[in-house]
Protein backbone atom coordinates (compact mmCIF):
# COMPACT_ATOMS: atom_id res chain seq x y z
CA UNK A 1 0.00 0.00 0.00
CA UNK A 2 1.37 3.41 -0.97
CA UNK A 3 2.17 5.72 1.94
CA UNK A 4 -0.24 8.65 2.02
CA UNK A 5 2.67 11.13 2.17
CA UNK A 6 3.90 9.89 -1.21
CA UNK A 7 0.34 9.77 -2.51
CA UNK A 8 -0.13 13.39 -1.42
CA UNK A 9 2.91 14.36 -3.48
CA UNK A 10 1.31 12.79 -6.56
CA UNK A 11 -1.96 14.57 -5.77
CA UNK A 12 -0.13 17.92 -5.51
CA UNK A 13 1.51 17.26 -8.87
CA UNK A 14 -1.58 16.20 -10.81
CA UNK A 15 -4.58 17.81 -9.11
CA UNK A 16 -6.16 21.14 -10.06
CA UNK A 17 -7.57 23.44 -7.40
CA UNK A 18 -10.93 25.07 -8.01
CA UNK A 19 -13.04 27.61 -6.16
CA UNK A 20 -16.03 27.85 -8.53
CA UNK A 21 -17.91 25.37 -10.74
CA UNK A 22 -16.84 27.27 -13.87
CA UNK A 23 -13.26 26.15 -13.16
CA UNK A 24 -14.31 22.51 -13.76
CA UNK A 25 -14.57 23.10 -17.51
CA UNK A 26 -11.48 21.02 -18.42
CA UNK A 27 -12.92 18.07 -16.51
CA UNK A 28 -16.33 18.51 -18.12
CA UNK A 29 -14.80 18.74 -21.61
CA UNK A 30 -12.95 15.47 -20.96
CA UNK A 31 -16.10 13.77 -19.64
CA UNK A 32 -18.21 14.96 -22.58
CA UNK A 33 -16.39 12.60 -24.95
CA UNK A 34 -18.37 9.73 -23.37
CA UNK A 35 -21.99 8.77 -24.01
CA UNK A 36 -22.58 8.06 -20.33
CA UNK A 37 -21.24 10.41 -17.65
CA UNK A 38 -21.58 8.89 -14.18
CA UNK A 39 -21.55 11.41 -11.33
CA UNK A 40 -21.00 9.94 -7.88
CA UNK A 41 -21.23 11.08 -4.29
CA UNK A 42 -19.65 9.87 -1.07
CA UNK A 43 -22.93 10.30 0.82
CA UNK A 44 -26.64 10.78 0.15
CA UNK A 45 -26.77 13.93 2.26
CA UNK A 46 -24.04 16.38 1.23
CA UNK A 47 -24.99 19.73 -0.29
CA UNK A 48 -21.83 20.30 -2.31
CA UNK A 49 -22.10 16.93 -4.07
CA UNK A 50 -25.58 17.90 -5.30
CA UNK A 51 -24.73 21.46 -6.31
CA UNK A 52 -21.53 20.47 -8.13
CA UNK A 53 -23.30 17.65 -9.95
CA UNK A 54 -26.04 20.10 -10.91
CA UNK A 55 -23.51 22.57 -12.31
CA UNK A 56 -21.74 19.82 -14.27
CA UNK A 57 -25.10 18.56 -15.50
CA UNK A 58 -26.16 21.98 -16.75
CA UNK A 59 -22.91 22.40 -18.68
CA UNK A 60 -23.19 18.93 -20.21
CA UNK A 61 -26.74 19.66 -21.33
CA UNK A 62 -26.16 23.18 -22.63
CA UNK A 63 -22.76 22.77 -24.22
CA UNK A 64 -22.57 19.07 -25.07
CA UNK A 65 -26.22 18.17 -25.80
CA UNK A 66 -26.85 15.48 -23.19
CA UNK A 67 -30.43 14.26 -23.48
CA UNK A 68 -31.45 12.84 -20.11
CA UNK A 69 -30.59 12.51 -16.44
CA UNK A 70 -31.01 9.17 -14.64
CA UNK A 71 -30.73 9.03 -10.86
CA UNK A 72 -30.65 6.60 -7.95
CA UNK A 73 -34.34 7.16 -7.30
CA UNK A 74 -37.67 5.41 -7.76
CA UNK A 75 -39.04 5.35 -11.30
CA UNK A 76 -42.64 6.49 -10.46
CA UNK A 77 -41.53 9.51 -8.42
CA UNK A 78 -38.84 10.55 -10.91
CA UNK A 79 -41.29 10.15 -13.78
CA UNK A 80 -43.48 12.82 -12.17
CA UNK A 81 -40.46 15.14 -12.17
CA UNK A 82 -39.92 14.21 -15.83
CA UNK A 83 -43.51 15.16 -16.61
CA UNK A 84 -43.15 18.42 -14.71
CA UNK A 85 -39.96 19.63 -16.41
CA UNK A 86 -41.49 18.83 -19.80
CA UNK A 87 -44.61 20.90 -19.07
CA UNK A 88 -46.86 17.82 -18.88
CA UNK A 89 -47.91 18.08 -15.22
CA UNK A 90 -50.07 21.12 -14.53
CA UNK A 91 -51.16 19.58 -11.23
CA UNK A 92 -47.85 20.66 -9.71
CA UNK A 93 -47.41 24.35 -8.98
CA UNK A 94 -43.61 24.40 -8.69
CA UNK A 95 -40.46 22.31 -8.55
CA UNK A 96 -40.71 22.23 -4.77
CA UNK A 97 -44.32 21.05 -5.04
CA UNK A 98 -43.50 18.11 -7.31
CA UNK A 99 -40.53 17.02 -5.17
CA UNK A 100 -42.47 17.31 -1.91
CA UNK A 101 -45.50 15.39 -3.20
CA UNK A 102 -43.74 12.59 -5.09
CA UNK A 103 -40.69 11.71 -3.01
CA UNK A 104 -42.43 10.35 0.05
CA UNK A 105 -40.72 6.99 0.54
CA UNK A 106 -37.87 7.00 3.06
CA UNK A 107 -35.17 8.30 2.60
CA UNK A 108 -37.13 11.11 0.95
CA UNK A 109 -34.39 13.67 1.63
CA UNK A 110 -32.25 12.24 -1.18
CA UNK A 111 -34.42 14.09 -3.71
CA UNK A 112 -36.80 16.28 -1.70
CA UNK A 113 -34.24 18.98 -0.91
CA UNK A 114 -33.59 22.59 -1.86
CA UNK A 115 -30.53 21.72 -3.91
CA UNK A 116 -32.72 19.62 -6.20
CA UNK A 117 -35.35 22.38 -6.40
CA UNK A 118 -32.77 24.64 -8.04
CA UNK A 119 -31.90 22.00 -10.65
CA UNK A 120 -35.53 21.10 -11.40
CA UNK A 121 -36.37 24.79 -11.82
CA UNK A 122 -33.50 25.13 -14.27
CA UNK A 123 -34.56 22.04 -16.24
CA UNK A 124 -38.15 23.30 -16.46
CA UNK A 125 -36.99 26.67 -17.80
CA UNK A 126 -34.45 25.14 -20.17
CA UNK A 127 -36.98 22.71 -21.65
CA UNK A 128 -39.35 25.55 -22.51
CA UNK A 129 -36.82 26.63 -25.15
CA UNK A 130 -36.24 23.13 -26.58
CA UNK A 131 -38.03 21.04 -29.17
CA UNK A 132 -36.48 17.83 -27.83
CA UNK A 133 -36.75 18.15 -24.08
CA UNK A 134 -34.29 16.81 -21.52
CA UNK A 135 -35.68 13.91 -19.47
CA UNK A 136 -35.35 13.00 -15.79
CA UNK A 137 -35.76 9.35 -14.77
CA UNK A 138 -35.27 7.01 -11.82
CA UNK A 139 -33.21 3.84 -12.07
CA UNK A 140 -33.88 2.13 -8.76
CA UNK A 141 -35.73 -1.10 -8.04
CA UNK A 142 -37.52 -0.46 -4.75
CA UNK A 143 -40.91 0.82 -5.96
CA UNK A 144 -42.74 -2.51 -6.32
CA UNK A 145 -46.13 -1.31 -5.11
CA UNK A 146 -45.91 2.18 -6.58
CA UNK A 147 -45.01 0.77 -9.99
CA UNK A 148 -47.87 -1.70 -9.87
CA UNK A 149 -50.24 1.12 -8.90
CA UNK A 150 -49.03 3.07 -11.93
CA UNK A 151 -49.66 0.08 -14.20
CA UNK A 152 -53.21 -0.36 -12.88
CA UNK A 153 -53.95 3.35 -13.23
CA UNK A 154 -52.73 3.46 -16.85
CA UNK A 155 -54.52 0.29 -17.90
CA UNK A 156 -57.68 1.63 -16.31
CA UNK A 157 -57.26 4.97 -18.07
CA UNK A 158 -57.00 3.37 -21.52
CA UNK A 159 -59.72 0.81 -20.63
CA UNK A 160 -57.40 -2.09 -21.35
CA UNK A 161 -58.76 -5.65 -21.06
CA UNK A 162 -55.42 -6.49 -19.41
CA UNK A 163 -56.39 -4.52 -16.31
CA UNK A 164 -57.65 -7.75 -14.74
CA UNK A 165 -54.18 -9.32 -14.90
CA UNK A 166 -52.66 -6.29 -13.18
CA UNK A 167 -55.29 -6.42 -10.45
CA UNK A 168 -54.58 -10.13 -9.91
CA UNK A 169 -50.88 -9.37 -9.50
CA UNK A 170 -51.58 -6.64 -6.94
CA UNK A 171 -54.01 -8.93 -5.12
CA UNK A 172 -51.22 -11.48 -4.72
CA UNK A 173 -49.13 -8.89 -2.87
CA UNK A 174 -51.97 -7.50 -0.73
CA UNK A 175 -51.35 -9.79 2.30
CA UNK A 176 -47.91 -8.23 2.78
CA UNK A 177 -49.33 -4.73 3.44
CA UNK A 178 -46.73 -3.00 1.27
CA UNK A 179 -43.94 -4.15 3.58
CA UNK A 180 -41.09 -5.60 1.50
CA UNK A 181 -39.54 -7.50 4.41
CA UNK A 182 -42.79 -9.38 4.96
CA UNK A 183 -42.93 -10.41 1.32
CA UNK A 184 -39.23 -11.32 1.33
CA UNK A 185 -39.60 -13.58 4.36
CA UNK A 186 -42.64 -15.31 2.91
CA UNK A 187 -41.01 -15.84 -0.49
CA UNK A 188 -37.62 -16.93 0.86
CA UNK A 189 -38.69 -19.28 3.64
CA UNK A 190 -42.26 -20.39 2.92
CA UNK A 191 -42.27 -20.58 -0.86
CA UNK A 192 -45.21 -18.18 -1.01
CA UNK A 193 -44.47 -15.74 -3.80
CA UNK A 194 -46.02 -13.83 -6.67
CA UNK A 195 -43.53 -14.71 -9.40
CA UNK A 196 -46.03 -16.21 -11.83
CA UNK A 197 -48.43 -13.27 -11.52
CA UNK A 198 -45.64 -10.75 -12.09
CA UNK A 199 -44.19 -12.63 -15.07
CA UNK A 200 -47.60 -12.95 -16.69
CA UNK A 201 -48.17 -9.22 -16.25
CA UNK A 202 -44.74 -8.33 -17.65
CA UNK A 203 -45.20 -10.51 -20.73
CA UNK A 204 -48.64 -9.04 -21.34
CA UNK A 205 -47.37 -5.47 -21.17
CA UNK A 206 -44.33 -6.16 -23.37
CA UNK A 207 -46.58 -7.72 -26.02
CA UNK A 208 -49.38 -5.19 -25.70
CA UNK A 209 -50.54 -3.62 -28.95
CA UNK A 210 -53.30 -1.53 -27.41
CA UNK A 211 -51.19 1.23 -25.89
CA UNK A 212 -51.54 4.79 -27.13
CA UNK A 213 -48.50 5.01 -29.38
CA UNK A 214 -49.18 8.70 -29.94
CA UNK A 215 -47.91 9.07 -26.36
CA UNK A 216 -44.65 7.12 -26.48
CA UNK A 217 -43.42 8.48 -23.15
CA UNK A 218 -46.41 6.86 -21.42
CA UNK A 219 -45.56 3.58 -23.13
CA UNK A 220 -42.00 3.87 -21.81
CA UNK A 221 -43.44 4.56 -18.36
CA UNK A 222 -45.61 1.47 -18.53
CA UNK A 223 -42.79 -0.79 -19.73
CA UNK A 224 -40.34 0.40 -17.08
CA UNK A 225 -42.91 0.05 -14.31
CA UNK A 226 -43.47 -3.54 -15.39
CA UNK A 227 -39.72 -4.13 -15.39
CA UNK A 228 -39.47 -2.62 -11.91
CA UNK A 229 -42.25 -4.90 -10.66
CA UNK A 230 -40.49 -8.00 -11.99
CA UNK A 231 -37.04 -7.09 -10.70
CA UNK A 232 -38.33 -5.73 -7.40
CA UNK A 233 -40.06 -9.03 -6.71
CA UNK A 234 -36.75 -10.80 -7.41
CA UNK A 235 -34.86 -8.29 -5.25
CA UNK A 236 -37.15 -8.58 -2.21
CA UNK A 237 -37.31 -12.35 -2.67
CA UNK A 238 -33.51 -12.52 -2.51
CA UNK A 239 -32.55 -9.83 0.01
CA UNK A 240 -33.48 -11.94 3.05
CA UNK A 241 -30.98 -14.68 2.28
CA UNK A 242 -28.24 -13.18 0.10
CA UNK A 243 -27.09 -9.54 0.48
CA UNK A 244 -24.50 -9.74 -2.29
CA UNK A 245 -26.90 -11.21 -4.85
CA UNK A 246 -29.67 -8.73 -3.96
CA UNK A 247 -27.14 -5.93 -4.53
CA UNK A 248 -26.34 -7.43 -7.94
CA UNK A 249 -30.03 -7.69 -8.84
CA UNK A 250 -30.45 -4.01 -8.00
CA UNK A 251 -27.46 -2.75 -10.00
CA UNK A 252 -28.23 -4.98 -12.98
CA UNK A 253 -31.75 -3.60 -12.91
CA UNK A 254 -30.43 -0.02 -12.95
CA UNK A 255 -28.29 -0.75 -16.01
CA UNK A 256 -31.23 -2.46 -17.73
CA UNK A 257 -33.45 0.58 -17.13
CA UNK A 258 -30.68 2.92 -18.28
CA UNK A 259 -30.43 0.93 -21.51
CA UNK A 260 -34.19 1.10 -22.07
CA UNK A 261 -34.19 4.88 -21.60
CA UNK A 262 -31.24 5.21 -23.97
CA UNK A 263 -33.09 3.21 -26.62
CA UNK A 264 -36.15 5.40 -26.14
CA UNK A 265 -34.09 8.56 -26.75
CA UNK A 266 -32.50 7.11 -29.87
CA UNK A 267 -29.04 6.93 -31.41
CA UNK A 268 -28.06 10.43 -30.32
CA UNK A 269 -28.90 9.77 -26.66
CA UNK A 270 -26.32 10.89 -24.08
CA UNK A 271 -26.95 10.25 -20.40
CA UNK A 272 -25.92 11.80 -17.10
CA UNK A 273 -26.23 9.36 -14.17
CA UNK A 274 -26.38 10.46 -10.52
CA UNK A 275 -25.66 7.71 -8.00
CA UNK A 276 -23.52 6.96 -4.95
CA UNK A 277 -19.83 6.26 -5.52
CA UNK A 278 -20.46 2.64 -4.56
CA UNK A 279 -22.64 2.31 -7.66
CA UNK A 280 -20.79 4.39 -10.26
CA UNK A 281 -17.20 3.50 -9.33
CA UNK A 282 -16.12 0.24 -10.98
CA UNK A 283 -16.63 -2.60 -8.46
CA UNK A 284 -13.68 -4.51 -9.93
CA UNK A 285 -11.36 -1.87 -8.41
CA UNK A 286 -12.68 -2.47 -4.87
CA UNK A 287 -13.07 -5.29 -2.40
CA UNK A 288 -16.63 -5.74 -3.70
CA UNK A 289 -15.14 -7.98 -6.40
CA UNK A 290 -13.98 -10.46 -3.74
CA UNK A 291 -17.61 -10.94 -2.72
CA UNK A 292 -18.82 -11.48 -6.28
CA UNK A 293 -20.55 -8.10 -6.40
CA UNK A 294 -20.97 -5.97 -9.50
CA UNK A 295 -22.22 -2.42 -9.94
CA UNK A 296 -23.38 0.16 -12.46
CA UNK A 297 -19.85 1.44 -13.11
CA UNK A 298 -18.55 -2.01 -13.97
CA UNK A 299 -21.60 -3.14 -15.93
CA UNK A 300 -21.83 -0.01 -18.09
CA UNK A 301 -18.11 -0.19 -18.92
CA UNK A 302 -18.56 -3.82 -19.91
CA UNK A 303 -21.71 -3.11 -21.91
CA UNK A 304 -20.77 0.10 -23.72
CA UNK A 305 -16.97 0.07 -23.63
CA UNK A 306 -14.52 1.93 -21.43
CA UNK A 307 -14.32 5.03 -23.65
CA UNK A 308 -18.11 5.45 -23.73
CA UNK A 309 -18.42 5.69 -19.95
CA UNK A 310 -16.82 8.41 -17.81
CA UNK A 311 -17.10 7.98 -14.04
CA UNK A 312 -16.44 10.88 -11.66
CA UNK A 313 -16.15 10.12 -7.96
CA UNK A 314 -16.78 12.71 -5.23
CA UNK A 315 -15.40 12.91 -1.70
CA UNK A 316 -14.75 15.09 1.33
CA UNK A 317 -12.30 15.33 4.21
CA UNK A 318 -14.71 16.64 6.87
CA UNK A 319 -17.94 18.58 7.44
CA UNK A 320 -21.58 17.77 8.07
CA UNK A 321 -24.11 15.44 6.41
CA UNK A 322 -27.80 14.49 6.54
CA UNK A 323 -28.25 10.87 7.65
CA UNK A 324 -29.85 8.75 10.36
CA UNK A 325 -28.57 6.32 12.97
CA UNK A 326 -31.31 3.76 12.24
CA UNK A 327 -33.22 2.73 9.12
CA UNK A 328 -36.54 4.52 8.72
CA UNK A 329 -35.98 7.21 11.36
CA UNK A 330 -35.96 11.00 11.10
CA UNK A 331 -32.89 12.43 9.34
CA UNK A 332 -30.54 14.71 11.24
CA UNK A 333 -27.45 16.79 10.63
CA UNK A 334 -24.37 14.80 11.67
CA UNK A 335 -20.72 15.69 11.71
CA UNK A 336 -18.37 14.05 9.23
CA UNK A 337 -15.08 13.55 11.09
CA UNK A 338 -11.70 14.13 9.53
CA UNK A 339 -10.64 11.41 7.10
CA UNK A 340 -8.86 8.61 8.94
CA UNK A 341 -5.12 8.21 8.75
CA UNK A 342 -4.01 6.31 5.69
CA UNK A 343 -7.20 7.05 3.71
CA UNK A 344 -7.53 8.69 0.31
CA UNK A 345 -9.40 11.55 2.00
CA UNK A 346 -6.51 12.16 4.39
CA UNK A 347 -4.02 12.15 1.51
CA UNK A 348 -6.12 14.67 -0.45
CA UNK A 349 -6.31 17.00 2.56
CA UNK A 350 -2.61 16.60 3.31
CA UNK A 351 -1.90 17.69 -0.27
CA UNK A 352 -3.56 21.01 0.55
CA UNK A 353 -6.76 22.01 2.37
CA UNK A 354 -8.50 23.08 -0.82
CA UNK A 355 -11.13 21.88 -3.27
CA UNK A 356 -9.46 20.04 -6.13
CA UNK A 357 -10.04 17.60 -8.94
CA UNK A 358 -7.93 14.84 -10.42
CA UNK A 359 -8.06 13.53 -13.97
CA UNK A 360 -6.73 9.97 -14.13
CA UNK A 361 -4.71 9.66 -17.35
CA UNK A 362 -2.16 7.33 -18.86
CA UNK A 363 0.53 9.64 -17.50
CA UNK A 364 -0.51 9.38 -13.86
CA UNK A 365 -2.83 6.38 -13.53
CA UNK A 366 -0.19 4.07 -12.04
CA UNK A 367 0.42 6.50 -9.17
CA UNK A 368 -3.18 6.06 -7.99
CA UNK A 369 -3.55 2.29 -8.45
CA UNK A 370 -2.46 1.17 -4.96
CA UNK A 371 -5.31 -0.09 -2.77
CA UNK A 372 -6.36 2.55 -0.24
CA UNK A 373 -9.37 3.17 2.02
CA UNK A 374 -11.95 5.51 0.47
CA UNK A 375 -14.87 6.86 2.52
CA UNK A 376 -18.48 5.90 1.78
CA UNK A 377 -21.39 7.20 3.88
CA UNK A 378 -24.85 5.67 3.55
CA UNK A 379 -28.27 6.88 4.66
CA UNK A 380 -27.57 5.17 8.01
CA UNK A 381 -24.39 6.53 9.54
CA UNK A 382 -22.50 6.37 12.84
CA UNK A 383 -19.68 8.94 12.70
CA UNK A 384 -17.98 7.74 15.88
CA UNK A 385 -17.51 4.28 14.41
CA UNK A 386 -17.01 5.03 10.73
CA UNK A 387 -13.45 3.66 10.70
CA UNK A 388 -14.97 0.19 11.26
CA UNK A 389 -16.94 0.03 8.02
CA UNK A 390 -17.15 3.26 6.06
CA UNK A 391 -13.92 2.96 4.09
CA UNK A 392 -13.94 0.91 0.90
CA UNK A 393 -10.52 -0.42 -0.19
CA UNK A 394 -10.12 0.96 -3.71
CA UNK A 395 -7.73 1.43 -6.61
CA UNK A 396 -8.88 4.94 -7.33
CA UNK A 397 -7.63 5.38 -10.89
CA UNK A 398 -9.27 2.08 -11.91
CA UNK A 399 -12.47 2.83 -10.02
CA UNK A 400 -12.98 6.31 -11.55
CA UNK A 401 -11.89 8.34 -14.54
CA UNK A 402 -11.74 11.50 -12.42
CA UNK A 403 -12.28 12.56 -8.83
CA UNK A 404 -13.62 15.76 -7.25
CA UNK A 405 -12.59 16.52 -3.67
CA UNK A 406 -14.38 19.12 -1.52
CA UNK A 407 -12.25 19.59 1.56
CA UNK A 408 -15.07 20.64 3.90
CA UNK A 409 -18.72 19.99 3.09
CA UNK A 410 -22.14 20.84 4.54
CA UNK A 411 -25.40 18.96 4.96
CA UNK A 412 -28.23 19.05 2.43
CA UNK A 413 -30.97 21.63 2.97
CA UNK A 414 -34.20 19.62 3.31
CA UNK A 415 -37.67 20.74 2.30
CA UNK A 416 -39.57 21.57 5.48
Please give a structural write-up:
The protein is of the alpha/beta class and 416 residues long. The chain has two domains: 4-66 and 270-409, EreA-like (biosynthetic domain) (EreA/ChaN-like  fold, 3-Layer(aba) Sandwich), CATH 3.40.1660.10; 144-265. It is built from 16 helices and eleven strands. It has helices spanning 4-14, 25-31, 47-64, 75-85, 95-102, 114-127, 144-157, 163-173, 180-189, 195-207, 216-239, 243-265, 277-280, 296-304, 344-350, 396-399; strands at 15-17, 36-39, 68-71, 135-138, 271-274, 309-323, 332-336, 356-359, 372-375, 391-394, 402-409. The strands form two sheets. Strands 1, 2, 3, 4, 5, 6, 7, 8 and 11 form a nine-stranded mixed β-sheet that branches. A two-stranded antiparallel ribbon has the order 9-10. A hairpin with an 8-residue loop joins strand 6 (309-323) and strand 7. Helix 1 packs across helix 15 (344-350). The radius of gyration is 21 Å and the shape is globular. The mean pLDDT is 94. InterPro entries: Emycin_Estase, Hydrolase/PRTase-associated, UCP036794_erythomycin. This is Erythromycin esterase family protein. It comes from Halalkalibacter kiskunsagensis.
Summarize the model shown:
The chain has helices at 4-14, 25-31, 47-64, 75-85, 95-102, 114-127, 144-157, 163-173, 180-189, 195-207, 216-239, 243-265, 277-280, 296-304, 344-350, 396-399; strands spanning 15-17, 36-39, 68-71, 135-138, 271-274, 309-323, 332-336, 356-359, 372-375, 391-394, 402-409. The chain is an alpha/beta fold and 416 residues long. It has two domains: 4-66 and 270-409, EreA-like (biosynthetic domain) (EreA/ChaN-like  fold, 3-Layer(aba) Sandwich), CATH 3.40.1660; 144-265.
Amino acid sequence: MLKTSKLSEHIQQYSVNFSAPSELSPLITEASQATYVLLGEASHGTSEFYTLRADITKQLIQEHHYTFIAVEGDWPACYEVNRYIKGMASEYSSAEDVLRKTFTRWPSWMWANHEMVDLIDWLYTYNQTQTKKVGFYGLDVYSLWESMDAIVNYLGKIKSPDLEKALRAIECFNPYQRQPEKYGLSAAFYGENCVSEIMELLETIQENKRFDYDDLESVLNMNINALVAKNAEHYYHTMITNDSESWNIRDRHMVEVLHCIGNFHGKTAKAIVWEHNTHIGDARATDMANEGMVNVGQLTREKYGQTNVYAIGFGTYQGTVIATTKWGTTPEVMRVPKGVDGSFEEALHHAGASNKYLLFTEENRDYFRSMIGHRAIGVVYHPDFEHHGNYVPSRLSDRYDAFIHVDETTALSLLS
